[in-house]
Design brief:
This protein is mainly alpha-helical. The protein is 59% helix and 0% strand. The chain has nine helices and no strands. The radius of gyration is 21 Å and the shape is elongated. The relative contact order is 0.10.
Length: 173
């Protein structure tokens, strides 16, 4: 008599787990940042949540763009309004996989999984004239370059063309 109820309860829990699990490509900034951070930790640090939190704050000082925003959401930056570092450090000390850690973080703050990496622009195959000024600025920003006096779109294109030989050997664009 209780077996059908138990079966239905177990089935419900299994379906719920599947629904709550991350899909491919979901929470990409979280998963990649947690993996990148975990790779920097020594074995003795990985065992202590407090040491992990201290190392995460150091790690966050060198981040930019989406990774920096992820650090902000977790409380890894001085200017962070809130902090849920314990939700990262404890599971990391248990050697929990990054996708599972990100599932737990999503339950605390859904915007963590809303972060997406910007699509990279392939400068070998793109016509700069067809890009928006915002995209041209992003290229320069990714290179940590500025375009002083750039007003027109052609000014940005000219600056990128000047800097292309310097940066085209880099693998990040």
């Amino acid at each position: 008599m209780h077996k059908p109820r138990l079966f239905h309860l177990l089935l419900f829990v299994a379906v719920l787990q599947t629904v709550l699990a991350l899909r491919e490509g979901e929470c990409e900034v979280c998963v990649k940042t947690v993996d990148k951070f975990a790779a920097t930790l020594s074995d003795d640090v990985k065992k202590d949540p407090k040491l992990i939190e201290a190392e995460f704050k150091k790690f966050c000082k060198g981040t930019k763009n989406k990774e920096n925003r992820f650090c902000y959401y977790l409380g890894g930056l001085e200017e962070s309004a809130t902090g849920i570092l314990g939700e990262l450090s404890k599971p990391l000390s248990w050697s929990m996989p990054s996708d599972k850690i990100c599932e737990k973080l999503r339950k605390k703050d859904a915007q963590i999984c809303d972060l997406r990496f910007d699509k990279q622009i392939d400068l070998n195959n793109v016509d700069l004239k067809k890009l928006k000024v915002r995209d041209l600025r992003k290229i320069l920003n990714d290179w940590d370059e500025v375009c002083d006096g750039c007003i027109e779109k052609t000014d940005f294109i000219k600056r990128i063309e000047e800097l292309k030989p310097k940066y085209m050997g880099r693998s990040d664009l």
